[in-house]
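Job type: complex structure
Entries:
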Amino acid sequence: MDEAGLRTLLNRLAGTEPPPARIDLDVAIARGRRGRRWRRVRAGVSVLLAAGAAAAVAAALLVPAQRSAQRPDQQPTGGPAVPARFNPLVPYAEFGWLPPGFQVGVRGGTMSRSGPAQLLLDAFSGSNAIIQLYVYPTGICHVGHDEVCSAYDSSQPVLSRAPDVHGHRAYWLRTAGLTWEYAPGAWTVLNEWTNATLKPWPPAGSERAAVLRVAAGVRYGQTTPIRFPYWISGLAAPWRVSNVDYTPLAGRPVVQTLEISNGPSDASRVDYLKVDFTPAAHSHWSCPTEGVRHVTVDGVAAVLENWPGGERVCIPDWRGLRLSVMTADAVTHPPNPADVLTVARKLHPIGPDPAHWTTDLLR
Amino acid sequence: MSGPQVDYVEYVEGRLAWLRRLAYLLCQDWHEADDLVQATLTRLYTHWPRAARMDNIDAYVRTILVRTFLGERRSPWFRRVLLPGSAQADGVAAGADPDVVLDVREALAAIPPRQRATLVLRFYCDLDVAQSAILLGCSAGTVKSQTSKGLAALRRMLEPAWGGGSDRG
């Protein structure tokens, strides 16, 4: 097949008869309007900062929003020992300093994600401002004209050299980012949430100082494991934990969503399954009741839901937890129908009280 | 409804079919494609005052759509939102061989999203290497290598069915 052949194929595929559109233009306008309001707020703040009239704001930037007792300049300058792969159950890094108003956690709709080849930390300011931190183990990213992080098929053009971060080389990225080599061969990328094509970058003035201070404050080599409201028995190879979405609760990380997979993320055919939970009494999230098949999991009533390319088993109340196991990415091929039930039957719920949750997930 | 909003609605209504087709080539699933278009149109509305003044709005929207697609796919567990009653088999274009369409769709779905996006931009949108590189935010060399890898992968998957690569259409 040559390029002309591919053109023919793509045009033929694009000519596939579409189902009725599900696009809701009113929703797009309403959400887009909220986005505009946020952009106006940002623009106003930028003007203040650029004019130098925001001495109070600049001063406020010097006040740590969270974890104020720990100063970023206490970061060791030699760089931590970094493994070739992270343990997804133990987030390797955390924010040390954030601008006022930013917080880590689900309250703003964000979560951090811990995986073997990438740790993603999100901090949210309350009205859609997000600082994202991507931390990679050694050997994943390489910087030349672009920063290329191979495991994630990511390539971001390098704009220019940035001030060193704790004595380590750093670069501004075109995609509203800053990257630095926090240890030999190991890189971190910081992105500000906005449309990268519209944001002036590198930043200037106080915003620049704040970005660099966030970078300097990142704490590596963390050892606090994530806590789970369930444990799993007999999860056999090739299944393994591929990502954990988590959020802090009382200062310790707790799981939101567990993702397991049966192959490396760069393989062409991989099944991903997600385990989600919420207290059974939670009113905003329920199991479907129509178009489902009724099954049991460890003697507990559950429903099995199917759709083209995916499925989910949902257990409405299992020791006070509502649990769900679903196919997370079934784009590449149909899932194995046995997978979600098989995995659900390996779960052992503990209960909704975080005081009793465990860090010993796999037994 | 204000003037700019009318312009926005008119533009979207006029280009919706094109956007859905492009999204479908990226997602291989009409429902995911609609989710992608929905997200794209939201971002477009946010930036409409600026977009409306552009010479080539289509190129701007295409950039939003492709980058939104790649942004979602960077995380392996991207959320798939299915609306109630939305599950139904995708149809096939009149006159097209259903088996061939399914083969192509499965083959495209099996290659990495960035390679897929590169192939769609190069061979469906007819963008050249430089244009594709700007849109994807990468170097021309990366576009070339992604194109080469993507074509090779499709060839491996499709050639048995295509009798050595000739177009039997």
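Summary: Confidence is low (pLDDT under 50) at residues 74-96, 161-169 of chain B. The CA atoms of residues 9 and 45 of chain B lie 9 Å apart.
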